[in-house]
Amino acid sequence: MKRAAGRALRIGVWIVAFVFLVLFAQRVEWRETLRALESASPTMLLAAAVVNLLSLALKGVRWWIFLRPVGADSFWLAMRATFAGAGLNNVLVANGGEAARVIFVSRASHVPSAKILATFALERLFELSGYVLMLVLGIWLLPLPGHISALRPFAITALATLGFFVLFLLSREKTEERVTDETNWRGKLRGFARRFTHTLASVSTVPRFAAAMLLSIGAWGLQIATYQMTARAVHFPITFTGTVACLLAVNVGFAIRPTPGNVGVFQLLYALTAAALGFDSNAAVAVAFLIQTQQILPVTAIGVALAPEFIRRKRPPTPPEIAHGVLNPLDISTEDAD
Fold first, then answer.
1. Which of 86-100, 126-140, 204-218, 265-279 comes out lowest in average pLDDT?
2. What separation in angstroms does the CA of 153 have from each of 42, 140, 160, 256?
């Protein structure tokens, strides 16, 4: 019943997104959009693509900071998984690459998936924290469009909630991990939850959190630079405020992607936000297409090159993997103790 309801909800979201995209596409002057695309500077676009890759690399470093204490200390593995996961997100809906990279790192490092999942949760926490901080500062300091300024109560509440949660994690006592009986599915479920919560507590330290926050600010700052440089490549005269507003708008859903790579929805939100600031919506569509081209094509190609395992059928876990408890985090009933 729950599975059917979830499927029905996803189909409903896709239908609504499709209707909105069709209506939006009918209002675009595609000749103007193509003219803007043809005028793009290849040099500036290449520079913007490099900046975008640097932003993603900072996210890989941020995850590596949390992976090291649990035994997955390979910097190269963290970077491979980050790029490959981002590449999968570009071709799947709902950020499907995120679960895949947790499994990939768990199997490659022979660290229980519950521990890898906990480090991933912390990495995502600081991705969200960076966005919320940028949203709050943008709303208070910049003349943003009304549909973004209206998020002020949500932004303040979210920032306060995240702050309290971070303090809660830092205040938790660092204890030795307890071993429990995991001979049945209830024991295995408790064992998975125990490893997850223990890892959250043990990895949460002020130096790691400070480094993660600085990396988040750097990653979002590089995203702003990517958007601004791409706009300049097609001679789109958007201001810094406009770029920040568009970045906030296209990422407001954060983990919700109704289409693969959020294609279509990204262009819709970017163009609507730019138009609200008085810029030409047709040229804005061209900018949005180029931004996504830089985010999808190079990242997906690099992800596949670094971790081709992501596009292959996963083999059944071998006995050594079972012995180390390195399995799909969703398959809790089959995960053994450490």
1. 86-100
2. 41, 12, 11, 21
SS3 for 134? helix
Q: Using an 8 Å Cβ cutoff, are 9 and 94 in contact?
A: no
- CA–CA distance, 136 with 217 (Å, rounded to integer): 13
pLDDT tens-digit map of 302-338: 888 887 766 554 444 444 443 344 444 444 333 433 4
Identify the pLDDT of residue 314. Answer: 46
For residue 130 the two structure tokens come to: 């960076």
Residues whose CB is less than 8 angstroms from the CB of residue 68 and which lie 6 or more positions away in sequence, other chains included: none
Q: CA-CA distance, 93 to 262, in Å (whole number)?
A: 8
Query: Which pairs with CB-CB distance under 8 Å and at least 24 residues apart come from 14-19?
Result: 14/258, 14/259, 16/258, 17/258, 17/259, 17/264, 17/265
CA 145 to chain centroid: 24
Token pair in block for residue 139:
């709303």
Which DSSP letter does residue 70 get?
G
pTM of the model: 0.79
Residue type, position 334, single letter: T
As a whole number of angstroms, the distance between CA 223 and CA 59 comes to 12
> Which two tokens mark 287?
């900018």
Which residue, 332, 60, 104, 334, is CA-closest to 196?
Answer: 332
